[in-house]
Amino acid sequence: MKILITGTSQGIGKAIAEKFLQNSHEVIGIDRQTSKIDHNNYTHYRLDVRDYANLPEIKNVNILINNAGTQNEDDIDINLKAVIHFTEKYGIQDNIHSVLNIGSASAHTGSEFPEYCASKGGLLAYTKNVAMRVAKFGAICNSLDPGGVITPLNECVMSDENLWAQIMDETPLRKWATPEEIANWAYFLTVENTFCTGQSIVVDGGESINRKFIWKD
Q1: pTM
Q2: Using the 8-state DSSP alphabet, how is residue 87 labeled?
Q3: How many structural domains comprise the chain?
Q4: Which of 61, 125, 146, 165 lies most in the core, judged by the most C-beta atoms within 10 Å?
């Protein structure tokens, strides 16, 4: 199948691209940074996802994965508006098999930067909207909403011993996911899954269900 993924230069997006390449799919990546993926079945476009006027013409996309995202940098433009533009251009068509939006557990809890939470919260509603519209093609659309993931973007807290200890106290499984673990979820939701649609799958080590009850001993 032909797979289009945004944000493939590092972290989750790179791991997802590599997962599909390992399974012999054709992968097209779009990122504002240079690609670190060297594979015969991989094509890279160096482009900011907000540059709608210069989006490449890519026909017959089978799976679209909207992964590119940011924190505290035009979050709504990158995390939400760009997803809408990409999906309307590449995802709403009769060759589509699956659309996956990479959201965030923060969309369910509101416990992060205001514009970031708003952008990812909007993604949940848009996911349901797309699921209804691609169903006529026999296609599905879901969002995959991770909690903490070990990526370069999170290095500032992972390398702070005090902050890391606090984060682990809020995470029942006492660990964060690897990009490869999230990639496995992305592959399952877009390739193996054919019936779950319009849903938001939270993968956060139990962080969003952690509710501490404090009482006198």
Answers
A1: 0.94
A2: I
A3: 1
A4: 146
